[in-house]
UniProtKB/TrEMBL annotation, chains A, B:
This is Maleylacetoacetate isomerase. One of its GO terms (molecular function) is glutathione transferase activity. Pfam families: GST_N_2 (PF13409). It comes from the Bacteria. Belongs to the GST superfamily. Zeta family. The keyword Isomerase applies. Keywords: Isomerase. One of its GO terms (cellular component) is cytoplasm. Residues 3-86 form the GST N-terminal domain. InterPro entries: Glutathione-S-Trfase_C-like (IPR010987), Glutathione-S-Trfase_C_sf (IPR036282), Glutathione_S-Trfase (IPR040079), Glutathione_S-Trfase_N (IPR004045), GST_Zeta (IPR005955), GST_Zeta_C (IPR034330), GST_Zeta_N (IPR034333), Thioredoxin-like_sf (IPR036249). PROSITE patterns: GST_CTER, GST_NTER.
């Protein structure tokens, strides 16, 4: 698997952030191809990007000639092709829990707060910014309340969401906490989430994936 | 794995519908525990359901004493524990594609149109029904446009989303087409989606999972 890896990414996209973490945890080299989601109506909506992803969304991981879409499916692929430093635990039962945690964020929080959704409110319904921001916070708080409970109630929770190494769940959680801070969510009710986020960000793989470390981040 | 399987389900929940299809494809016996999402403010929000799922969402698959949450994570679990009649193809590359198709629906269409989201618009923003319905159709059309392109552009597409047997992608697609019809989406632009939906519904596993066949469906 010596084919080149290129990640179509935007510094502030939390789905791209997940994949950057996964690639870094595996120690893989990859080129970042920045896709500016706001400039000029959004580069992801240009015909040039349609071959990369008919969904007009980042991230896309290009592996040789293959275009891989959907961040969780990309992370599972990375984990299967490069099995060292696994992103999923060893048993079906534990994998189920880690995937479910990842999906709390990736299915039930993030898609509701994605750029295209906020733009719909702004352009179709004229929802004012304070109400749009309250919407964003609402779904983060709903999701984090469940996520925190699922961590606190389970013996598998360790330094990270599952035991003592980062997993798919941590790849999703850390970017979502970044968004929560950005929108001013009070994180006091989620002590386990914040503790795990801090443990993750202390690792070079997570640190290098941070939005502000990306080549397309504003200077 | 002779422990009993119980599915906390609602007849019209498309996430529960996915899991019913998966269980049926595996030929597994399971008991349906109906959770009425509308009655009395929603049974999923009662304290009695919190142990089953802190997210207050269906489906939950109970396997012995384990509570398994998140439909895609449940389907992956079923596929790992009962590997016969696989829901995922044999290679990492093909699995990536099938998971990505499933996630187009499960991450980028369905969560935006979920009951709790529509209720937020109704109760917090007083969005009238015609605009709520237009919102639902908008995200289905966006998702289906990409899904159709991803099917048409790929040689792996067969009678089903991947070749000649149903997969995780079909488990997600068929319930989403059910929702599309319910909300009056014009399906003419998506001939491949409709062809695959019809092939699926001709199979007993899909037919028995239909909303109207469920014990909690209105008479």
């Amino acid at each position: 698997m010596s084919e080149a890896l290129c990640l179509h990414s935007y510094w502030r996209s939390s789905a791209a952030y997940r994949v950057r973490i996964g690639l870094n945890l595996k120690g893989l080299r990859y080129e970042i191809i920045p896709v500016h989601l706001l400039r000029d109506g959004g580069e992801q909506r240009k015909p040039a990007f349609a071959e990369a992803n008919p969904q007009k969304l980042v991230p896309v991981l290009q592996h040789g000639k293959r275009m891989l879409r959907q961040s969780l499916a990309i992370l599972e692929y990375i984990d299967e092709v490069w099995p060292e430093t696994p992103l999923l635990p060893a048993t079906a039962r534990d994998r189920q829990r880690v995937r479910a945690l990842a999906q709390v964020v990736a299915c039930d929080v993030h898609p509701l707060n994605n750029l295209r959704v906020i733009q719909y409110f702004e352009h179709e319904w004229n929802v004012p910014q304070p109400e749009r921001d309250a919407w964003v916070r609402h779904w983060i708080e709903e999701g984090f309340e469940a996520f925190e409970t699922m961590l606190q109630n389970h013996p598998a929770t360790g330094d990270f969401c599952d035991g003592h190494a980062p997993s798919l769940a941590d790849c999703c959680l850390v970017p979502q906490v970044y968004n929560a801070r950005r929108f001013g969510v009070d994180l006091t009710p989620y002590p386990t989430i914040v503790r795990i986020e801090q443990a993750c960000l202390a690792l070079p793989a997570f640190d290098a994936a941070r939005p502000e470390r990306q080549p397309d981040a504003p200077g």
